[in-house]
């Protein structure tokens, strides 16, 4: 294994796309709370803590999942031999420590959220992942919590309503995708004795539950506009995002791999709608 292959493997452990996406969500939380210009250092610390925490959580997940991934995802860094299990664990610990250092510079509510999240990230794979629906719900909470964390980092959760609505929309959409991902991973999860939701209630029932949850989130997606948290530009972006997410969930009945992947694109597009919607409020002509 060359040094370049090892470095690529280590970076891969963090799942950099998710690191960037989750960091953007934390920034949106601070943005919606109106604190980005007032508290730029705190926003930077919160975004940095999120990035390190997500990288750490993904790396420790791959460390604990190394045997499952030999079945489900053999091309991942540890099963393909690019990174040793011990190396992955050590890397994760360093990232977790960095997240703690940055989080400790923030207000107490943000520190409390970070503490809960960091413990959850360590515990997820070994404690919650194999419990039907609970592991999915924990990941959904973690994604949604970024909005609360960003708002808390700037010293105010602002209008709690705005952060709470974004929390719920992101959490429910993530819960849908996590269930679909578990349908995709049924073979390896069953080999490892994990009692995930699709294994507990059946793959089709799990997919029906997943799409039902997403429909609820899509029906609720105009709320940020209706409550005037976001401008009309939000609707122009979130409606196509909703369509992509609904199609992806429907697609999952035949192809959960394609469905969960396309659902992620729709979710990222929805996150863009949050940014555009809030920015539009600052420009009265397109508010
Ligand atoms: C209806 C509506 C408007 C919903 C809002 C949807 C929204 C904005 C969701 C946020 C999704 C997002 C940007 C998440 C950040 C990326 C992330 C950390 C996802 C969770 O990762 C766990 C996942 O199991 C990792 O698997 P994979 O993505 O395949 O590596
Ligand atoms: C705000 C702070 C301090 C932290 C935020 C933490 C966030 C946003 C976490 C997002 C979710 C995340 C990174 C979870 C880590 C565990 C993980 C990778 C779950 C999914 O893994 P598996 O269920 O094993 O499925 P795959 O490994 O096949 O993707
Ligand atoms: Mg895993």
From TrEMBL:
<dbReference type="InterPro" id="IPR044878">
    <property type="entry name" value="UbiA_sf"/>
</dbReference>
<feature type="transmembrane region" description="Helical">
    <location>
        <begin position="109"/>
        <end position="127"/>
    </location>
</feature>
<dbReference type="GO" id="GO:0005886">
    <property type="term" value="C:plasma membrane"/>
</dbReference>
<dbReference type="Pfam" id="PF01040">
    <property type="entry name" value="UbiA"/>
</dbReference>
<protein>
    <recommendedName>
        <fullName>Digeranylgeranylglyceryl phosphate synthase</fullName>
        <ecNumber>2.5.1.42</ecNumber>
    </recommendedName>
</protein>
<keyword id="KW-0812">Transmembrane</keyword>
<keyword id="KW-0808">Transferase</keyword>
<feature type="transmembrane region" description="Helical">
    <location>
        <begin position="206"/>
        <end position="225"/>
    </location>
</feature>
<dbReference type="InterPro" id="IPR023547">
    <property type="entry name" value="DGGGP_synth"/>
</dbReference>
<keyword id="KW-1208">Phospholipid metabolism</keyword>
<keyword id="KW-0594">Phospholipid biosynthesis</keyword>
<feature type="transmembrane region" description="Helical">
    <location>
        <begin position="231"/>
        <end position="250"/>
    </location>
</feature>
<comment type="pathway">
    <text>Membrane lipid metabolism; glycerophospholipid metabolism.</text>
</comment>
<dbReference type="GO" id="GO:0000287">
    <property type="term" value="F:magnesium ion binding"/>
</dbReference>
<keyword id="KW-1003">Cell membrane</keyword>
<dbReference type="GO" id="GO:0047295">
    <property type="term" value="F:geranylgeranylglycerol-phosphate geranylgeranyltransferase activity"/>
</dbReference>
<dbReference type="GO" id="GO:0046474">
    <property type="term" value="P:glycerophospholipid biosynthetic process"/>
</dbReference>
<keyword id="KW-0460">Magnesium</keyword>
<dbReference type="InterPro" id="IPR050475">
    <property type="entry name" value="Prenyltransferase_related"/>
</dbReference>
<keyword id="KW-0472">Membrane</keyword>
<comment type="function">
    <text>Prenyltransferase that catalyzes the transfer of the geranylgeranyl moiety of geranylgeranyl diphosphate (GGPP) to the C2 hydroxyl of (S)-3-O-geranylgeranylglyceryl phosphate (GGGP). This reaction is the second ether-bond-formation step in the biosynthesis of archaeal membrane lipids.</text>
</comment>
<feature type="transmembrane region" description="Helical">
    <location>
        <begin position="42"/>
        <end position="64"/>
    </location>
</feature>
<keyword id="KW-0444">Lipid biosynthesis</keyword>
<feature type="transmembrane region" description="Helical">
    <location>
        <begin position="17"/>
        <end position="36"/>
    </location>
</feature>
<comment type="similarity">
    <text>Belongs to the UbiA prenyltransferase family. DGGGP synthase subfamily.</text>
</comment>
<keyword id="KW-0443">Lipid metabolism</keyword>
<feature type="transmembrane region" description="Helical">
    <location>
        <begin position="262"/>
        <end position="281"/>
    </location>
</feature>
<keyword id="KW-1133">Transmembrane helix</keyword>
<dbReference type="InterPro" id="IPR000537">
    <property type="entry name" value="UbiA_prenyltransferase"/>
</dbReference>
<feature type="transmembrane region" description="Helical">
    <location>
        <begin position="160"/>
        <end position="180"/>
    </location>
</feature>
């Amino acid at each position: 294994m060359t040094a370049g292959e090892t470095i690529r493997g280590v970076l891969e452990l963090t799942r950099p796309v998710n690191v960037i996406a989750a960091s953007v969500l934390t920034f949106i939380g601070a943005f919606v709370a109106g604190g980005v210009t007032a508290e730029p250092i705190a926003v930077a610390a919160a975004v940095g803590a999120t990035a390190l925490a997500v990288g750490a959580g993904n790396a420790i997940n791959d460390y604990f999942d190394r045997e499952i991934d030999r079945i489900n995802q053999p091309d991942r860094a540890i099963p393909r031999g690019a990174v040793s299990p011990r190396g992955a664990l050590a890397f994760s610990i360093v990232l977790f420590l960095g997240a703690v250092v940055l989080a400790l510079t923030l207000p107490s509510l943000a520190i409390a959220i970070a503490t809960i999240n960091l413990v959850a990230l360590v515990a997820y794979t070994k404690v919650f992942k194999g419990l039907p629906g609970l592991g999915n719900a924990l990941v959904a909470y973690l994604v949604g919590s970024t909005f609360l964390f960003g708002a808390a980092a700037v010293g105010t959760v602002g209008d709690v309503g705005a952060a709470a609505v974004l929390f719920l929309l992101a959490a429910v959409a993530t819960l849908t995708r996590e269930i679909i991902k578990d349908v995709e991973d049924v073979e390896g999860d069953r080999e490892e004795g994990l009692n995930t939701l699709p294994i507990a209630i059946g793959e089709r029932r799990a997919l029906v539950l997943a799409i039902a949850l997403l429909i609820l989130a899509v029906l609720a997606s105009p709320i940020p506009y209706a409550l005037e948290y976001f401008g009309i530009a939000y609707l122009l972006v979130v409606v196509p995002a909703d369509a992509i997410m609904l199609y992806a969930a429907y697609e999952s009945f035949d192809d959960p791999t394609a469905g969960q992947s396309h659902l992620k694109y729709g979710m990222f597009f929805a996150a863009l709608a949050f940014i555009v919607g809030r920015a539009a409020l600052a420009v009265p002509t397109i508010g």
